[in-house]
């Protein structure tokens, strides 16, 4: 385009605006807007001619500050704090991620089917790869879950929880965690001191004897035991079943209920014990039940309600259900495979 033509058009516009300002006759406003003037230079020639433009005063919605030439626009709505916006956005992302887990596979052949498969299992499928290796996010999540599993095995149950549930503590023949892992047989037997304490503190021959043990996951006991235990007590009370003195066995295995059965002679023993942790959950609790357990009881005579945690069977529901199972065991005077055979 012709630069001279552009210059002429610009000057005409400026002169028109200046003439409009002059008609206002408001010298005070002109003086206040002096600092915010815009200067146009004639860059097409060597002359130093210039034209000056000052904004028209009293523009609706605009405030000018005298002596500074700053323009402040009106606010039509108060903006939301940035922290609230980010928090709401993060919560929505977490909600959508829980409902529709994202896939790490780039350009999958059938994305809808892959999304459906991922939503149906907590297993690590569709995580994708970076070359021959897993992606960074996948690897970090794996390391995190593995660390949680190790902590669950080597951790200890909080003493406050035991006090809150009024559980006294005894131990098996294992004193060290490494020995407990290498020698499962020692975790199935109560120590002599534990037997003495149980005889002194526990009521003999109850209908139901409840015991708790950390097993292979102290985290499972801390996260789920209280809800299961209180719900189970309420269920047994409503069914009119009496319970013995509950207690906690440190570093116990499932078959430790046989020693308890020999000592207290209950009709049913319920053992709430931490499951072996995995990479999906390190907080899963199991409830083992047995009718009149004694030394020499075979595994087929035991029953188990497993996978009790927030991602599996809800703890409160599990406790209520255990009361129904105990009622059935007492009715048929059997547990495990024998119970199934008698029912049929």
Automatic annotation (TrEMBL):
Listed GO MF terms: ethanolamine ammonia-lyase activity
Pathway membership, UniProt: Amine and polyamine degradation; ethanolamine degradation
Major enzyme class: lyase
EC number(s) on file: 4.3.1.7
Subcellular localization(s) per the UniProt record: Bacterial microcompartment
Keywords linked to the UniProt accession: Bacterial microcompartment, Cobalamin, Cobalt, Lyase
Binding residues annotated for adenosylcob(III)alamin, in chain numbering: 254, 275
Note on how the cofactor is bound: Binds between the large and small subunits.
Reactions catalysed: ethanolamine = acetaldehyde + NH4(+)
Pfam families per the UniProt record, alphabetical: EutC
InterPro entries tied to this protein: EutC, EutC_C, EutC_N
Region Disordered, residue ranges: 44-63
Cofactor: adenosylcob(III)alamin
Top-rank lineage group of the source organism: Bacteria
Family recorded in the similarity comment: Belongs to the EutC family.
Function: Catalyzes the deamination of various vicinal amino-alcohols to oxo compounds. Allows this organism to utilize ethanolamine as the sole source of nitrogen and carbon in the presence of external vitamin B12.
Quaternary structure note: The basic unit is a heterodimer which dimerizes to form tetramers. The heterotetramers trimerize; 6 large subunits form a core ring with 6 small subunits projecting outwards.
Protein name per UniProt: Ethanolamine ammonia-lyase small subunit
Organism: Bacillus salipaludis
Gene name for this UniProt entry: eutC
């Amino acid at each position: 385009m012709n630069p001279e033509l552009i210059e002429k058009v610009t000057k005409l516009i400026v002169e028109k605006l200046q003439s409009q300002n002059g008609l206002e006759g408001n010298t005070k406003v002109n003086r206040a807007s002096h600092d915010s003037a815009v200067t146009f230079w004639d860059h097409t020639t060597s002359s130093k001619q210039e034209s000056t433009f000052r904004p028209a005063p009293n523009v609706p919605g605009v405030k000018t500050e005298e002596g500074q030439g700053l323009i402040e626009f009106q606010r039509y709505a108060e903006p939301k704090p940035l922290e609230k916006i980010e928090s709401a956005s993060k919560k929505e992302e977490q909600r959508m991620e829980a409902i529709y887990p994202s896939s790490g596979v780039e350009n999958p052949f059938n994305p809808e089917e892959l999304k459906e498969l991922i939503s149906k299992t907590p297993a690590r499928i569709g995580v994708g790869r970076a070359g021959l290796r897993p992606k960074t996010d996948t690897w970090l999540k794996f390391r995190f879950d593995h660390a949680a599993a190790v902590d669950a095995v080597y951790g200890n149950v909080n003493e406050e929880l035991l006090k809150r549930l009024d559980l006294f503590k005894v131990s098996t023949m294992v004193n060290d965690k490494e020995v407990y892992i290498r020698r499962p047989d020692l975790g199935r037997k109560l120590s002599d001191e534990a037997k003495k304490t149980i005889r002194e503190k526990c009521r003999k021959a109850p209908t139901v004897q409840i015991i708790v043990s950390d097993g292979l996951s102290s985290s499972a006991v801390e996260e789920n035991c209280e809800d299961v235990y209180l719900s189970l007590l309420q269920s047994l009370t409503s069914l009119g079943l009496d319970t013995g003195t509950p207690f906690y066995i440190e570093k116990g295995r499932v078959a430790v209920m046989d020693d308890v059965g020999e000592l207290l002679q209950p009709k049913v023993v319920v053992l709430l014990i931490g499951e072996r942790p995995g990479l999906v959950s390190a907080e899963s609790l199991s409830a083992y039940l047995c009718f009149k357990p004694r030394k020499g009881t075979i595994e087929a005579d035991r029953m188990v309600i497993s996978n009790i945690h927030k991602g599996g069977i809800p703890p409160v529901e599990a406790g209520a259900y255990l009361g129904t199972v105990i009622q059935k065991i007492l009715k048929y005077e059997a547990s495990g495979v024998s119970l199934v055979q008698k029912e049929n």
